[in-house]
User: Fold this.
Amino acid sequence: LRLPIGKLPATELPPGTAVRVVGVGDGTQTTVDAVVARAPSLLDDGTSFALDVRVADAEADLVARLAAGDQVALVLVGGV
Assistant:
């Protein structure tokens, strides 16, 4: 995923962290549970991050489409 600042948690997201991929801006309430596979790294533009997440096979196409349309935000789950 490529996410701008504000569309992912500000806290560290080490591999294995439970997160939720949330579809934004498409008028639906799409959410997909995921696990961080590679921690976010700041890209050269200084305003966005790249990270890898693992999702269930049945959800992979949906997440890819949302990501390609810049319609994704990531939230941290658990621990509440």
In short: The chain has a mean pLDDT of 92. The chain is about 15% helix and 40% strand. The helical segments are 57-68. The two ends are 25 Å apart (CA to CA).
